[in-house]
Amino acid sequence: TLLADGAPERTVFHSYSGDAEMGEIARENGWYLSLSGTSSYKGNGGIRESAKLVGMSHVMVETDAPYLCPMPYRGRTNAPYMIPYTLQALADYLDEPLAKIAEATRQTTHEVYGI
Description:
single chain; mainly alpha; TIM Barrel
């Protein structure tokens, strides 16, 4: 639908749950992915691969609180203090230091939302 109807200039996929194919489409169109705790779940490699495809300049993280708590706390109530677990899962997948991923997502959030 976004491709057919035309996406807004700045498109953000809240709590992104797509696969790598959708990640490639997002990359081609300059869309942003916001990853929740579900990106840390074992079966959601497509979410992490999508983040790799779009590049860290187009990735943010979120809690989607009180839902979608990251591993190893899946099933609990989510809150902002859980963000480091989502960041760590992404850092592990990308084989990058946690601090680098945290800074990259902070910069992207600043660029997208001006905060």
